[in-house]
Amino acid sequence: MFDRVKYKKFAKKQLQGRWTIPVLVTLFCSIIVGVLQFPDTINSFADFTKRIDELGYSFNFTKTVPQLTGPLGTISQMASFIAIAIAFVLEIAEINLYLKMSISPEPVSFGTFIEGFALWARGILASLWAGLWIFLWSLLFIIPGIVKAYAYSMTLYLVAENPELSVTKALKISKEITKGHKMDLFILDLSFIGWEFLCLFTAGIGYLWLVPYINMTKTNAYHALLKEAVSSGNITVEDLKD
Hints:
- The structure is a single chain.
- This protein is mostly helical.
- The protein has 13 helices and no strands.
- The chain has helices at residues 4-15, 20-36, 38-54, 61-64, 70-103, 110-115, 120-138, 142-151, 155-161, 167-177, 182-190, 193-200, 207-232.
- Helix 1 (4-15) packs across helix 13, helix 5 (70-103) packs across helix 9 and helix 7 (120-138) crosses helix 10 (167-177).
């Protein structure tokens, strides 16, 4: 049985007295991704101001905010790919942190998050593999893509927790353990909308605490889904080994 209220309440208890590291990790990841996305932000703003100029306004923004073209444009594209790869690495490092927090009440350090960087290759491969299948399903229509996104949403958790498990098998197991629970996971995401709305009034600062709360809750949901699948015989402990 999927009990989102239970997972959320337990997440608060797990984070009690241990908020500092998750908040710092969230801030660190936000800064890193923000810096890497800066070239894209410049290009997007340049495109916007160019359209403003084309409408006949005399601000002449395009002279003051030049678009990155030529070599700089190539650097911008490279930075985009690098940003995506680093985002994948940061994500699996975060997941590794919350998995450690979920199985032990002991305090964690920033080093616990850093340890997750050792999973960088598996994180990138798993994210790309899941992303490829989500993209292919999205070509049919947006709804199948969303459904498959939830079906494959536990892939990184499985890869992070089971070092012997292959990326392709992790995707299959994720699909198995989320069977019958994709709507539950969707509703779980919706249940945080109120908090996300309130965070807007804090200039985004509230997200530093909301993100750990969401991540801890989803980690609890992962454990519950995996336990249910093993108990029902849909997967075995041996399945978690390649």
